[in-house]
Specification:
By secondary structure, this protein is α/β, with parallel strands linked by helices. The protein has 4 domains: 3-108, GMP Synthetase, Chain A, domain 3; 120-290, Rossmann fold, CATH 3.40.50.300; 296-373, Helicase, Ruva Protein, domain 3 (Orthogonal Bundle), CATH 1.10.8.60; 378-468, DnaA protein, C-terminal DNA-binding domain (Chromosomal Replication Initiator Protein Dnaa, Chain: A), CATH 1.10.1750. The protein is built from 22 helices and 8 strands. It has helices spanning 3-26, 46-55, 57-66, 94-98, 116-124, 145-155, 175-189, 200-212, 216-224, 241-256, 277-284, 296-313, 323-330, 335-352, 358-364, 366-371, 378-389, 393-397, 403-419, 424-430, 436-452, 454-468, and strands spanning 30-35, 38-43, 73-78, 165-169, 195-199, 228-232, 260-265, 287-291. Helix 1 (3-26) packs antiparallel against helix 3 (57-66), helix 12 (296-313) packs across helix 13 and helix 20 packs across helix 21. The structure holds adenosine-5'-diphosphate (ADP) and magnesium ion.
Amino acid sequence: MTQEKWGQLRSKLLKAIGRNNFTTWIEPLEFQELQDGVAVFSVPTNFMGNYVSQNFADLILYELNTSGESVQRLAFRVAANSPARPVAAPVAEPALAAVSETVAPVQPEASYPSDTASDALESLQAAPLDARFTFESFVVGKPNELAHAAARRVSEGGPVTFNPLVLYGGVGLGKTHLMHAIAWELKTKRPELNVLYLSAEQFMYRFVQALRERRMMDFKHLFRSVDVLMVDDVQFIAGKDSTQEEFFHTFNALVDQNKQIIISADRAPGEIKDLEDRVKSRLQCGLVVDLHPTDYELRLGILQNKVQQYSSTYPDLTIADGVLEFLAHRISTNVRVLEGALTRLFAFASLVGREIDMELTQDCLADVLRASERKITVEEIQRKVSDYYNIRLSDIIGPKRLRSYARPRQVAMYLCKQLTSRSLPEIGRRFGGRDHTTVMHGVKRIEELKLTDGQIAEDVEMLRRSLEA
Ligand code: ADP
Ligand code: MG
């Protein structure tokens, strides 16, 4: 048989088994020789050879024989220097790892599945993408601009420049949102790519299921045939040893093939307890960016954005000035909580048919506001200020009168007056037992300087923001 003949046969196979199966299983086969009734193909991996042999062999044999060739058997060899390295089998399957060349027997009764690979991939997509989580609906601010930029970059689907991309940050800061946004973007820009998004929990679930049903080969192949793999909340697999192991192998196999991996976690990889060191170091190999807690501006931006979205659902509702600012100020850094509050507010206002004003807000959200009421303490202010000016905490509180200590001390006193409900004497006591007149003087001084000294004004503003974030 000639290469040309094989080429013609391939188009028949394409018709018979569908585009997805064809691309996944037949396209990578290279016809090598036909000898003594055995047609030999080279394949990128053992797994692939086995799979094709079990699922498509009789069809291929049929096509070969009806086209005039006399073939009794198919054989598959793993190409020595194929671009995709042979599947790295974990310890669970030593037999496979030991075999470098497989001549897989044909099983005549095996029937080929309709579209197994893509079906299975589809069923893996157990967590459907949330239609609301797009780049358009993602509000960018200082705390998330780096994560957003990195997400944008990988969503272009260009050459893989950093692998993996690790997004980490606290609860409700937009990790899942960004991952879905990447997936949506890739779906439109690069529809030919196999993009798989799932949570680490689902990864584990699939893994355990595959073990139980003795379908590890399918599992491995599926995960190794994706182009972009996204695993959300990877901290979940910490302490789950065999899942970590499998994750590690999947990870390596994909990185070897230069496939993009995107991971999220609730903290920096190095700080995830019970995550194997080798997994940690793999994660740290790529680009690790964190989503910082939201600040006031970002919260306000998100609220304004949400209000715009709501305006189509609730065209009659109006919102009084200052309400959004109040919410951005008072509700915690978790965007989910912020959104929940706004949703409740709109629902409530539309029920009672009133404008959303301060009073309604206070009534409707009393519990949320109480829960997220965060009291800034004098100690916190002292610590922040000493960090900011790079001096010791003891120097802020202590007796030294040097200008380089006195000014930060006054800034700290000013902030205590502004941001806490402490009285001047109370503040004085916490600054090394100073008199309340000293505190008053300090506060006045900063008030004056804010008007004349741009640097001081900026320092105070920065500190206030970071304390209120
Ligand atoms: P995480 O996965 O980090 O816990 P999510 O991505 O689930 O957080 O975000 C929680 C909610 O907050 C979602 O509804 C999401 O749309 C919203 N959200 C978070 N950050 C932003 C943002 N920057 N702009 C718009 N919505 C956001
Ligand atoms: Mg999440």
